[in-house]
What we know:
Layout: H1 2-5, H2 8-19, H3 25-51, H4 60-76, H5 89-94, H6 107-116, H7 131-139, H8 141-172, H9 176-197
Helix pairs in contact: 2-3, 3-4, 3-9, 8-9
Amino acid sequence: MGFFESTFNPCLITITVQWYKRSEQPIVSAIWQSMFAFGTTIQSLIAYGMFNVRDTSLRNWQWVVLIFAILSAIGTSKSLTFDINRPTVVTFFLLPDSPTTANWASEDLKTKFVERVRSNNQGLQHKKWKSDQAWEAAKDPFVYCLFFFAILQTMIVGGLSKFNSLLINRAFGFDVLTSQLLKIPMSLCGVMFYMLMA
């Protein structure tokens, strides 16, 4: 699950740089990053509700996992059968590979999309492998700094966000239900901090 989830940020970064000008990218990135934090609020409310379910054959945490598995299956495939090559219908039809392949846009609109981001000096999409660019990236120390920054940030923030209810429960003595509710202010602070960073 974490492996598939790890593709979200690179995909969203790719979409952001293809569709938005450099001046717009910080706020757009902050919006989608803050939605990850806001998702924790929704997740906490659903978990709180499921932990109140009594007298069933499944344990409370199993209900939570089952609900999120069903929501993930619906969100990642056209049917409940998981298949990585079958994205949601909306994403498949409305999210093109690049502004030049948007089948819902006229040729005039596609040209405007490309002209709009031309000032970024980054190009839109290249399908041809260029070894000299790969070698240049391999020699660039900033690539390694960015890589280690992302890994370290993900380990710390990811660990805290995924296990914070357990930390609240074990370290501070709150019960399971209260620890779910105490995640909400932390996630809303995350939303606020992403917006302040932008």
